[in-house]
Amino acid sequence: MIxxxxxxxxxxxxxxxxxxxxxxxxxxxxxxxxxxxAVKVHINSILENTSFEVKTDKLKYIFKSNGSMRGLSSxxxxxxxxxxxxxxxDLKGNLIVSSLWHLGxxxxxxxxxxxxxxxxxxxxxxxxxxxxxxxxxxxxxSSYSYIYDRHFKPIAILNLPYLADSTFYKKELxxxxxxxxxxxxxxxxxxxxxxxxxxxxxxxxxxxxNDVLKKISFSKENQKIIIKNPNEEINQLIETYNNMVDQLExxxxxLAQTEREQAWRNMARQVAHEIKxxxxxxxxxxxxFQMTFDPNDPNIKQKFxxxxxxxxxxxxxxxxxxxxxxxxxxxxxxxxxxxxxVSTIRNALKLYDPEQVRFVSSDDEILFNFDKNQIQRVITNxxxxxxxxxxxxREPEVLVSVRQTEDKIYITVTDNGSGIDPEHQSRIFEPxxxxxSSGMGLGLAIVKKIVENHNGKIYFNSDKEMxxxxxxxxxx
Length: 476
Ligand SMILES: Nc1ncnc2c1ncn2[C@@H]1O[C@H](COP(=O)(O)OP(=O)(O)O)[C@@H](O)[C@H]1O
Ligand SMILES: [Mg+2]
Hints:
alpha+beta; Beta-Lactamase; Heat Shock Protein 90; 3 domains; 5-stranded antiparallel β-sheet; 5-stranded mixed β-sheet; binds adenosine-5'-diphosphate; binds magnesium ion
């Protein structure tokens, strides 16, 4: 836009200057012709009234300019009246009289017509020729034409040198250009102003679109674009985007549903499997007990006790499995509430022997938004694992710590156990991964889920000799 205005102004300037020049040339051409006509009329009247014979060689007497015969018909008088120099040549091109003589200007160059001029006059249809050349003070035009006698026979050549004075035109042109310039500068400013706001308006809406597009994600709800009075193209873009968000939401919803269904199917399969496992030995023992049951056996009481004991153990195991799964299944959304993390952890640790599980914290109070029950479950799970990791020939030493920095909160659980086998390290957070005969492998899966519900991270350092440290990191 700015470029266009700039280009237009430059072109207008050029055209104006050219136009003025042409006009001024035209003006001077016409003016010269007018003057020439006037001079000729004057000359003709002199020729009509002269007492001399009208012939080439008498002209120098008729228009004589010097001496006592100087009168109204003298060439200098003529020149004065018409306000321009006048030269008269004979038909061969020799100067007869000149108004410049009495000014004492006797130029040699004036004595003869420039060569070829007579031919040029003859050739031109109006028997007239104008020479143009640029001089110091402007453009010179010099016209040459015949002077005729009564019978229209050429008797001499009239030469009128004319200085085209274009100062007036130049002044006027300058004035005009100044006005035009002012208008164009205003237009230019307006163009800058308009294009600035227009482009800002367009880029602003595009930026909004861009920002929202950057944030688009499949997993969370996407924001729709709302821009006040957008232009048509942007509006189309926004509508397309908003429709896409709707479709995306629908697909994400469907996907989530399928995922949930899949997860539940897996879960149900696992629960069934886990419950079936102890059922088979139970069934076998009942069958064998039934077959070997002898009410007269003196050891029947003891056998029955053993049998009952075995059944109770299996039932307990099943109930343990059931509650572990239900724990894992009922992982409700975290109800975040601001509270003191230090006291929550301290309370969770009350169940344990303070000799074995020690607790340290950087502050008496660390305020944080968390779900109290879930964080307590995290701590108990980690501490339980820590205690379990310590071999029987060692005294367990578990250290739980909580500390805060400028923008983070760290909870660590360190044990002096046997460490995590490097082979297993990548799998310990998987549900159902366990290295324990009675383990469910759900503890760390639950812990991880809870920590992620709090937008936190969990990781660990483990060493076969030194034990393991689990670190939880929350953003404040
Ligand atoms: N503090 C620890 N030290 C050593 N190994 C650990 C520790 N915590 C967890 N593990 C390993 O991670 C596995 C998974 O733990 P978890 O998910 O709590 O299931 P479970 O305790 O039922 O085995 C454990 O079986 C164990 O091998
Ligand atoms: Mg565990």
